[in-house]
Amino acid sequence: MNQEKQIYFPTIEKVKKATENIKNVSAVTPLGVSLRYSKQFDAKILLKREDLQQVRSYKIRGAYNKISSLTAEESKNGVVCASAGNHAQGVALSCKLLKIKGTIYMPAPTPNQKVEQVKMFGENYIEIKLVGDTFDDSYHAAMLECESLGKTFIHPFNDEKVIEGQATIGLEILEQCDKPIDYVFIAVGGGGLAAGLSTVFKALSPNTKVIGVEPEGAPSMKTSIENNKNTELESIDKFIDGAAVKRVGDLNFAICKENLHAMITVPEGKVCETILELYNKDAIVAEPAGALSISALDFYAEDIKGKNVVCVVSGSNNDITRTPEIKERALLFANLKHYFIINFPQRAGALKEFVVDILGANDDITYFQYAKKTNRENGSAVVGVQLKSASDLQPLVERMKKHNFYGDYLNDKPDLFQFLV
User: What is d(CA 409, CA 101) in angstroms, rounded to the nearest whole number?
Assistant: First the structure.
C-alpha cells in the first residue's frame, strides 16, 4: 500500500529553538510604521527592516541556524555554498563566528563589491572560488567539491534548518505587533522565507493573509502552485537577482502551496519605482528583492484599506552602479521614457524644427544617435524622449507623423530595445 509522502513543516518549537540559536548573531530588526505608505494606502503599513541586519539581509538567520546545527565531524570537514549575493555573506559571517572553514562558489561575473563583502565577513575562514558564468555553473562546482571531499552543502533555501532560521522573522513580527495583522507581504525567490514565515503565521495567527511576491520575469513559485507541482522555468529575467530563480525548493514549494494565501507577480519596472521612492523619500536603501513586498501594495490597494499590513524589507545589498538602469526601468514602467526612429530630412534646420515644432514644452531628449548619409533624402536617428506626463505621448506621436518625422516606435520591439536599455 502506497503512503503519501509526509510534508515537512517547521514546528513552532523548532522555530523557537532557532531563535535561541541565532540570538547573539541576528539582530531583532525594527518593525516600524511607514507614515508615507500608511497615508497613501489608508492603512497601517509597517516595515520589517531586515535590511538593517549586519549582513544587510535576513539570510544570516537561516545560514547560521544551519551551520550551527552541524555535528563535530561535519564542522571539521567544512562547508560549501554557491551564491552571488546575500546567502554568501550570511554563510561567510557564520563560518567566521563558528570557526568553521567554508568554500564559497560565486559566478565569475559577480561584481567585485559583492566579492569583497563576502571576504570581509568571512576573513580567513572562507575561500572564494569564482567559477563559471552563471549561478548554475557555481552550484555544480560546489556540489562536486561536497561529493569529493565530504563537505556539507549549505543550501540557500531548500533545507529544514535554513527554513526554521528564516521563520524566526515571523515570531519577531508577532511579538512586536500589539494588534492583529491582516496582511503580510514577503518576497519569494527560492521560498525559504515564505515557507518559514507562512508556517509561523498559520499556527499562531491563522487569520493573517500571507502574500508571496515574485518578479514578473521569474514567477517560479506562482507557476508551480498553479501547476500543482514544482516546475522549473525555461528562462527568467535576472534583474531582481535576489528573487530570480528558475526552480524553487521542493521543501519550500510543498509548504507554500499549503500555507500562502496568494502568490502575485510585480513588474520589474514597478520595483524600480519603489527602490527610487524609498531612497528619495524615506532614505531607505533597498535592493530589488527588498522592495518587492512594498511594490505589491498597489495591487492590493482596495483590500488593505483600514488594515494592519506588514511588508518585509528583505535586504539592502544594492550595487550603486545599477542606479542608471533602475531609473531607466522605472521611467519605462511609468510610460515616461520612449524611444523612436526619427526620419530627419537631410537639410539644414531639420533638427531645430524637430525640437521647436515637434517636442512638447516639457519633453526632454535623453538619447540621440544619428549618422548623416549624404546620398539619401532622409537620415534616420534613434531618439529617446522623456515626458513629464504619460498623456503627452499620443500628441507627440501625432505631431511627428503630421510633420513626416515619424519612423518607428521601439519600446515594444524587445529585440531592438535591449540594445538601448
Answer: 55
Let me know if 314 is a catalytic residue. yes
- Taking residue 148's Cβ as centre, other Cβ atoms within 10 Å add up to 8
Tell me the residue type at 28.
V
Q: State whether residue 273 is helix, strand or coil.
A: helix
Instruction: Using a cut of 0.85, tell me whether the model's pTM lies above it.
Output: yes
- 76 neighbors 102 (Cβ within 8 angstroms): no
Residues of the chain with pLDDT under 70: 1-5, 371-377, 414-421
Map grid coordinates 520591439 to a residue: 413
C-alpha closest to that of 64 among 174, 152, 161: 161
Say how many Å lie between the first and final Cα of the chain, rounded: 57
Active-site entry in 68, 224, 314, 316:
314
Render the burial of 299-336: b for 16+ CB within 10 Å, e for the rest: ebeeebeebbbbbbbbbbbbeeebeeebebbbbbbeeb
Residues found in the chain: 421
Give SS3 for 226.
Answer: helix
Q: Which of 14, 59, 66, 257 is catalytic?
A: 59
Output the pLDDT for position 416.
65
DSSP state at residue 162: H
How would you classify the pairing of strands 183-187 and 308-313? parallel
Indicate the SS3 state at residue 408. strand
> Please, are residues 121 and 151 in contact by the beta-carbon 8 Å criterion?
no
Q: Within the chain, how many helices (H) and strands (E) appear?
A: 17, 14
Reference 286, options 275, 270, 272, 298; nearest CA is 275
Asked if residue 79 lies in contact with residue 106, where contact means CB atoms within 8 angstroms, the answer is no
